[in-house]
Design brief:
- The chain has helices at residues 15-29, 52-55, 66-75, 92-100, 141-151, 175-194, and strands at residues 2-7, 33-38, 78-84, 123-129, 156-162.
- By secondary structure, it is α/β, with parallel strands linked by helices.
- It has a single domain (2-194), classed as 3-Layer(aba) Sandwich (Rossmann fold).
- Strand 3, helix 4 and strand 4 form a beta-alpha-beta unit.
- The radius of gyration is 16 Å and the shape is globular.
- 31% of the residues are buried.
Length: 195
């Protein structure tokens, strides 16, 4: 099973990255292959609204560091997206990536039952970390993106979320979050084996 992990934090050892790495280590020990991309180390543009992916190509026309990431998503069974919360949303690095995933929607996705160029059966793991200790703050981020995940045909989705985690490395004291990451990895592998 192929897992593609996309890291949206600008910090190479940030809290969201630490959780994502723990999840990936666990799912790898259970037999999955893992490919990880740190968006902050890449040079890429956001969506240019050129509509080439809807008129002339079945993929994004831009050729930059994100091209390899988008190609990896085509064959992925599990997609991991990890981000801290910046100004009430995902990071700009992650948002630029999400906008480019638009290229996987079919030209007539608004009206068609076939909305996505993704093969069915993909699973999403969304990792969100925030400094604000109030768990109700920013609880709307994941639901805001869920309609898009529906369009892509991603039916199985898991949220791993931590709040009150601001300083670098602070997540290491939150054993329950790491346990949740392990449990999600085990559940995904069990589901894939019975599918």
């Amino acid at each position: 099973m192929k897992t593609v992990c996309v890291l949206g934090s600008p910090r190479p050892n940030g809290n969201s990255t630490t959780i994502a790495q723990h999840f990936c280590d666990k799912i790898e020990t259970l037999g999955a292959s893992v490919q990880t991309f740190a968006l902050n180390k890449m040079t890429y543009k956001g969506c240019q609204a050129c509509m080439t992916c809807k008129t002339k190509l079945d993929r994004c026309v831009l050729r930059d560091d994100l091209t390899e990431v988008l190609d990896a998503l085509r064959d992925a069974d599990v997609i991991v997206m990890a981000t801290p919360v910046y100004f009430s949303d995902v990071t700009s690095q992650m948002k630029g990536f999400i906008d480019r995933v638009y290229s996987f929607l079919t030209p007539d996705y608004r009206e068609s039952s076939e909305k996505s160029r993704f093969s069915p059966g993909k699973t999403l793991v969304f990792i969100q970390v925030q400094g604000r200790p109030d768990e109700n703050k920013f609880a709307d981020i994941f639901p805001r993106y869920e309609e898009f995940f529906d369009w892509y045909g991603i039916e199985k989705r898991h949220l791993i979320r931590a709040w009150g985690v601001r300083d670098l490395g602070e997540i290491k004291g939150r054993r329950e979050v790491f346990q949740l990451a392990e449990d999600v990895a085990s559940r995904i592998m069990a589901d894939k084996k019975t599918a």
